[in-house]
Design goal:
By secondary structure, this protein is α/β, with parallel strands linked by helices. It has 14 helices and seven strands. Helix 1 runs parallel beside helix 2 and helix 8 runs parallel beside helix 13. This is Sulfotransferase family protein.
Length: about 240
């Protein structure tokens, strides 16, 4: 998540949408007073490319509880007021209505039929111990066990199925959409140019499985049900799905 007071924009970061690459690209144009939340595993890449790191995301000491004191002074961690994948409803409350309403807010969306495959392969590759603990062996069991992952992005930028952002970048058309966003936040070039040079959290999907061929009728029905509002809003459909046996 980024809150730029210098350029008056708020970027809400979603999961498995190239959000980290865009976050790094945007960081390059942020000032010392702007809020940049820590990136889980690519903070070094951001510092190298953008010349800036996480800043101004901490909770004021006046708002510390017992757990916050323990984290800050015993574990040497900064209790966060703003987090990487913070939801819009929480960011609005934290920032206040005046800032929230005055700033331009945007995020990235991605076809949920494709995104859940990316989420599945990323989890199986980087968190195999969790997959074993959950008893997840295939995409279908993953979707059923972690249904909260399927619709997580929609919950990031909505309230009661109402969009809380002013604009969206479609993952599938990000070059086109970022041209519009770039102009809106006062850049003289397309942010896509910056993003194309960044490979943060690259794809973990095996090359043989880069299509949606793993999605069968059962998996499609689950995603359709869980992401009905998102699918209706952006007109997404599964592509390359395998037919029923």
């Amino acid at each position: 998540m980024i809150v730029s007071h210098a350029r008056k924009f708020i970027f809400l970061k979603t999961h498995k949408t190239a959000g980290t690459s865009l976050e790094i690209a945007l960081s390059k144009y942020c000032g010392p007073e702007d809020i940049l939340t820590p990136i889980a595993s690519d903070e070094g890449i951001r510092r190298e490319i953008a010349g800036i790191g996480a800043q101004n995301y901490g909770r004021p000491i006046s708002q510390y509880g017992p757990g916050h004191y323990y984290a800050r002074f015993i574990r040497r961690e900064i209790p966060a007021a703003y987090t990487e994948h913070m939801r819009a409803v929480d960011a609005r409350e934290r920032l206040g209505e005046k800032v929230w309403n005055a700033y331009f807010k945007f995020t990235i969306v991605r076809n949920p039929f494709d995104r859940i495959l990316s989420r599945y392969h990323w989890t199986m590759k980087t968190r195999p111990h969790l997959a074993a603990r959950w008893g997840v062996t295939d995409l279908g069991s993953f979707i059923r066990y972690r249904a909260d992952y399927v619709n997580e992005n929609w919950l990031t930028y909505t309230s009661g199925d109402r969009l809380l952002v002013d604009d969206t970048v479609r993952y599938e058309h990000r070059e086109e959409d970022l041209a519009r966003i770039s102009e809106r936040i006062g850049l003289d070039h397309n942010l896509h140019e910056d993003m194309s040079r960044i490979n943060a959290k690259g794809s973990f999907r095996p090359k043989a499985e880069r299509s949606e061929s793993l999605l069968g009728p059962g998996e499609i029905a689950l995603v359709r049900g869980l992401c009905a509002a998102e699918i209706a809003r952006f007109g997404y459909e599964p592509m390359g799905a395998r037919s029923a046996a």
